[in-house]
Amino acid sequence: MKKTLSSLTVAVLALFGAQAAMAQAASSPSRADVKKEAADANKAASKSGVPDAAAGQQAPKAAAATSTTTRDDRKKSAAEANKAASKSVVPDAAAGQQSPKAAAATSDTTRDDRKKTTAEANKAGTIPATEAQMQAPKK
Fold it and tell me: I need a surface site. Which of 9, 27, 74, 115 has the fewest CB within 10 A?
């Protein structure tokens, strides 16, 4: 009885073990195979004259190759555009407001004076200590 049970077990394991081994071998191609297939497909497309871009559009390399503007001309036009933009009437800050950097640069208060006024405000308790106090200041 034990002999037939063990031989039956061996037969079942051999049947399912072989199936699992075959499934692993045929599951997916290796990385090298995929690279080779992609390279072959690219070669075939370039030899057949099929355009890289969609119907009627040029590929980015082809579009760049057809430009007639030289690099020096492009630099000159960019410099002229920058010069014209710097001479424009529009102020740097909208509606007469100064940027924080510009406001700090035009301050007449010295560092020592600012430290002194901050220390006095801190002693008086007028500087908010928490975010909630900043959101709802005392009146």
Answer: 27
